[in-house]
């Protein structure tokens, strides 16, 4: 028995030695490119740990997706025991459980992949991170299938230990060709390393890609090309916070320092953040690098113009309307484009020099470059400088006449502006037609305020039935708004529907008990019904709330 036990111990020791000595000679070399990765939540608590490996000399690495799921921070530990921060996420794929990321590291040992497919019967080796001797497992390929023309999927005759999931797999001569996938049914699986080429950020990611990336709370990088990066930045500028967008645009500028577009795009959030000196510096760099100086001058002018209009405070002495005008004048001297001329007119409007603005619009409207927009702008300048409402309406007539018949949806705001001008001119029924057309062109997607304005207009036009219908629409869209109920009360008084007027006034007071107009109208309606006592109570309450017209009603209808 002792002899048997001793023999067993010897055999076990011998097997261990053989296993340890069976590590390929190249393993220690490639293991330098394999690192340990640790992820943390938003409170710096350790979430997960696993193996990752560098795939190029730019600090880009690949790891198991599950390690990064929910992570807010990550670090890698190299073969020498040094720690480095994970900088950006560069791609994520939940289907095959992969994530690609970049590491803040000056120099790294990359593992270059081999393109050639492996054959059935080949011996391959999975390696995991180990600070000392390489941790590996040998396997034999038993089956080769294809995911697509360039990516293979391999099966092995035996399962591969789960600690090697997403670890690199090497050929017998030490060339990277795959990554370990989870084992199933006693078999191991290996994904072709060529799949990593698809593991990138897309300018227009799919819903699946977006969901995978959104589960990782670490900053995202950029797509691989300049063009895709710019498209990606454009869409991110609409959804990302200023801080998140700034991280992305800073990365773009670092990655493509000679690309002018990065500087002008960064200037916009810098202005929002009131970092004006930095924005000015970026704008000047943009002007120097731009291949088309006229367009660059135009964009810089627009940035200054928009800042002065939409963010007048705090002031920045270097940016004035006069400075913006110098940029647009230089752009016009290079190329007299319509957009540049229109921008100059808009600057004159902002400077309240309406005569000069109108002169530019008028010149455009007499030539082949006239458009609904130029006539619309001319009408605004004409109105601002005090032209008669009739002259302003004529400009809007010209603008609308340039649209095809029947009018497209793009004409909606033009029609509505003319309707409002017609109301100002006292041409109420014509104005109602424009309001109706606006509603039609907007596919009836109008709000409660529009119905309220239209009802008031229809009342002026003595179109009472339409006014009642529209004020009911306003109340239906915003039942908690006392102003709309008060307007209904006024309309009902006009058509002598006293019970409806009383009801609307009472509903108004339920929402706003201090509404003096509602008390006055209620008092007047009760008076018309012959209830002088209740009428006087409500009219006196209106007086207490400061309504001067209530006393006139008392003097005229009650005291006499």
Determine Rg (CA atoms, Å).
37 Å
N- and C-termini, Cα separation = 131 Å
CATH architecture of the domain at 23-221: Beta Barrel
What is the oligomer described by this structure?
A: single chain
pLDDT < 50 runs, ≥5 residues: 1-21
Q: Give a count of the beta strands, DSSP E runs of length 2 or more.
A: 12
Structural class of the helix and strand makeup?
alpha+beta
Question: Any chance you could write out the topology, listing elements then pairs?
Answer:
Layout lengths: L1 H20 L5 H4 L3 E7 L5 E9 L5 E5 H4 L4 E5 L5 E11 L4 E6 L19 E6 L6 E12 L5 E5 L11 E3 L5 E9 L2 E6 L14 H8 L11 H14 L2 H14 L4 H13 L3 H14 L3 H18 L10 H14 L3 H13 L3 H12 L6 H13 L4 H13 L10 H13 L3 H14 L6 H13 L3 H14 L4 H13 L3 H14 L4 H13 L3 H13 L4 H10 L2
Antiparallel strand pairs: 1-2, 1-4, 2-3, 3-6, 4-5, 5-6, 7-8, 7-10, 8-9, 9-12, 10-11, 11-12
Helix pairs in contact: 5-6, 6-7, 7-8, 7-9, 8-9, 9-10, 9-11, 10-11, 11-12, 12-13, 13-14, 14-15, 15-16, 16-17, 17-18, 18-19, 19-20, 19-21, 20-21, 21-22, 21-23, 22-23
Summarize the structure.
With 560 residues, the chain is of the alpha+beta class. 52% of the residues lie in helices and 15% in strands. The strands form 2 sheets. A 6-stranded antiparallel β-barrel has the order 1-2-3-6-5-4.
Task: Report on this structure.
With about 550 residues, this protein is an alpha+beta fold. The chain has a domain of about 200 residues: Thrombin, subunit H (Beta Barrel). The protein has 23 helices and 12 strands.
List keywords for this structure.
single chain, alpha+beta, Thrombin, subunit H, 23 helices
